[in-house]
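Sequence only, no structure available. Ideas?
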Amino acid sequence: MQNHTQLPTGLSFSYETERLILRLPSTDYLREIHGSQAYLDCQSTLSIDMSLPFHNFDLSQITDETERINMIMVVQSYIEENFIKKNSTNTNKAKKLIVSTDEAHRILKFEGARMFENALYRVARKRHTAPWLILQSVKDFAKYQDTEEILKSTETFMLFRHNYLDGQYIKDTTNLNQSQVDTVLNLGGTSEAKKYGELCLVDIPTKRAVFIQADYLKDSEFDVVETDVEKIAEHARMKQGA
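Reply:
I predicted one. Tokens follow.
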């Protein structure tokens, strides 16, 4: 099976099962790339309903490390081209856009992903965009120079409970005093007496911190918040018997 595609720029490529031939217009240059791995040139016919309030790109089922790296690059490029760049620089027309990366510590170990996030934090304001990185600890920023640069561009933190070993790093990067840091290290109560919904909101420019207790609606939020499988199963049985 062989296919041929002519791109608008005159650049063309043809591909077989395990062979990619790249031809440049008006030249005799020919390059063959052998392999069986799928690829994407970051342009897509994927249709997304932009009227929806949320769009989710889930890569959690990709276990192969090489494929994960490639897919991260593809998704980040797709988000940049179709969401960020298309969000008008005119504040009267632009919509509020949040680009949130969950489990960010898993992708920031890849240099390309760090470069994307670093660039995003630098240009986000111009596109009326708020980048959010969700990590296990603030100290995850200390692993790479790229992520240290991201930290410098961050103005707001939402801190949940941290390990006591991270205390000094939190103090150094957020301007919290020792008493506030101690409170952060004890958010959420104990394993015997959990307190759900506790967090610390830190505003770097004003050097202010506010501790927040969010309402925990157990009946509707239990299955999302709880991590104990036995308690989830017990809660399900109670709902069935109600």
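The first helix runs from residue 65 to 84.
Hope that gets you unstuck.
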